[in-house]
Amino acid sequence: MRKLVFSINISLDGFADHTVAIADDELHDCFSGLLDNTGIELFGRVTYQMMESYWPYAHDDPVASMSTLNFADKFNSIPKIVFSGTLEKAEWNNTTLIRSNALEYVAGLKETEGKDLFIGGIELAGSFMSHDLIDEYWLLVHPVVAGKGRRLFESVNEKLKLRLVESMVFKPGVVALHYVSVRS
Q1: What is the pLDDT of residue 184?
Q2: Is the dihedral of CA 13, 83, 37, 58 positive or negative?
Q3: Secondary structure letter of residue 19 according to DSSP
C-alpha cells in the first residue's frame, strides 16, 4: 500500500502562500530528498498551473542554482496527476488529467503497490484531510507572518490526531515538521 504524503510551505500564522516561502538551496535539497520516495505527484488545477509555469523551464532560468536544477530534474521526471473539471489539457511531461472524483481515485491508488503519493496545494489536500486520507504531513513553517490568504486547515471539521516524528531547522529560520496521522 502507498502512503499519501502532504507537503506544503506555510507562514507562522498558518497561511499557505508560496509567495512567502524562502526557497533556498537547503529547502530545495530537503524537497529533493522527499522526491526520492515519491511515485506520483497529485495536484489540483491551481497548484498544477503554478508548478507547471516554472519547473519544466527551470533550466532556462539564468539564476537557478544547482540545487534548484537538481530538484527540477527529479520533479519533472515523476508522474503527475492533476484533478480538474475545467483544465482543457495537461501538457507538462508525465502528467495525466483526471476528471473523476479525486477522493475515490486516490483511495484506490493508495491500495496499489509503489512509492508514495505526494500532494501539494491547499484545496485538494483539504478535501483529503477532511476524509482522513493523508498519512503523513511535511509542514515547512517560514519565519514570516503573511496576515492573509488560505489557512492550512480551514476545511477540516473533525479533529486530526498527528504525531511528530521529525523536525529540522534550516539556516533562514524555516522549520520542517514531519507528522504522521494517528488513527484509532
Answers
A1: 66
A2: negative
A3: G
pTM over 0.90: yes
Yes or no: say if 45 and 178 are a contact pair by the CB < 8 Å rule: no
Please tell me the predicted confidence (pLDDT) of residue 123.
87
Q: Report the pLDDT value the prediction gives residue 170, as an integer from 0 to 100.
A: 94
Tell me which residues of the chain have a pLDDT lower than 50: none
The C-alpha cell at 92 is: 507538462
Give 120: exposed, middle or buried? Use CB within 10 Å, 0-12, 13-18, 19+. buried
List, as one string, the DSSP characters of 25-69: HHHHHHHHHHHTTEEEEEEEHHHHHHHHTTGGGGGG-TT--HHHH
The residue assigned the cell 475515490 is 104
* Close Cβ partners of 19 (under 8 Å, ≥ 6 residues apart): none
Predicted pLDDT at 29:
94
Q: Strand 162-169 relative to strand 80-83: parallel, antiparallel, unpaired?
A: unpaired
Which domains can be identified in the chain, with CATH numbers? 4-181 (3.40.430.10)
CA 158 to each of CA 121, 126, 131: distance values in angstroms, whole numbers, following the listed order = 20, 12, 9
The dihedral of CA 21, 73, 26, 42: what is its sign? positive
